Amino acid sequence: MPKIKYITSDGKDFDVEAETGSTVMETAVKNSVPGIEAECGGACACATCHVYVDDAWTAVTGEPEAMEEDMLDFAFEVQPNSRLSCQIKISEELNGLVVRIPERQA
Length: 106
Prior knowledge:
The chain is an alpha+beta fold and 106 residues long. It has one domain (3-98): Roll (Ubiquitin-like (UB roll)), CATH 3.10.20.30. The chain is 17% helix and 20% strand. The protein contains 3 helices and 5 strands, in the order ββαβααββ. It has helices at 24-30, 58-61, 66-72; strands at residues 3-7, 13-17, 50-53, 82-84, 97-100. It has a 5-stranded mixed β-sheet with strand order 2-1-5-3-4. A hairpin with a 5-residue loop joins strand 1 and strand 2 (13-17).
């Protein structure tokens, strides 16, 4: 199983195993990672699962698609490496992925 590292805004690390085919958001919720609210349940209809993808992983996770880009307009403190974690599908290729959770969600 791939491992994902979540880093909260106060610097706490959460290293969790993720099921292939699930999303970074689903994995956070399942493992009670604080800061991922996921109000829409992963439908890309809010921006409450906003994360910053570590620079070493941006090429692997790819660019946001148009719908995700639109929803990121509602997120706080968007950066070039901002993504909605509900839109990042877990694969073996993402083993070791590091994401940072912003201080607040939309």
